[in-house]
What does this fold into?
Amino acid sequence: MTMSVSADDIPGRAGELYEIINRRRDTRREFTGEPIRSEVLTRILSAAHAAPSVGLSQPWDFIVVRNPKTLNAFHEHVEQERNVFAASLSGERATTFERIKIEGIREAGLGIAIGFDPTRGGPQVLGRHAIDDAGLYSAVCAIQNLWLAATAEGLGVGWVSFYRESFLRNLLRMPDHTRPIAWLCVGPVSQLPPIPDLEKYGWRHRTPLTEFLHEEYYQSEGKRRHLTAW
It folds into this structure.
């Protein structure tokens, strides 16, 4: 068994799934601004809602945002936070970051904010008594489902993380106990780039699976280098 997966080597529906996984991108500069058809939006939200959740608690909320005033307000806040991060950089990191577009809030024309509600499912959620974050993991599974479904539909998705949770909670009038864990820019794109922007502009490069793979127990970096295949 090799340490990489090529969709070309896998027949049928499994190959299609791997192709979608490998084609998924964090989209920023490719949005066309065209609206998403209502039936397509329903499909990708239904895919998100079909995600597994601890104790079937379904601890997610999806807020679909189209109002230009709201999009502009969020964009301005994200721009401020981008500047805060940029000011902490110097040298090569500052130069590289300047080339990277970090959001497409206004260009996409549609945002989907995901809230995590830790009270969903009641005080005794089956499977969460020992790992409280299992609820948060469930909401992230919903995000991944949405992202892959959107990719299959030919849409782009950009996950915006340059924001303060309190600002987004207030902007979208979310309850105090609900945590806004993501803002996704979603919409038609001119293309999905073959190389992720962070790799294209040299911020980071993808590390081979072998660097993260362990057998039976956690192994030091030197020992992991000898793991090649099963």
Observations:
- The domain at 26-193 is CATH 3.40.109.10 (NADH Oxidase).
- The chain has a mean pLDDT of 91.
- The longest strand covers residues 179-188.
- The beta strands are 60-65, 111-116, 155-160, 179-188.
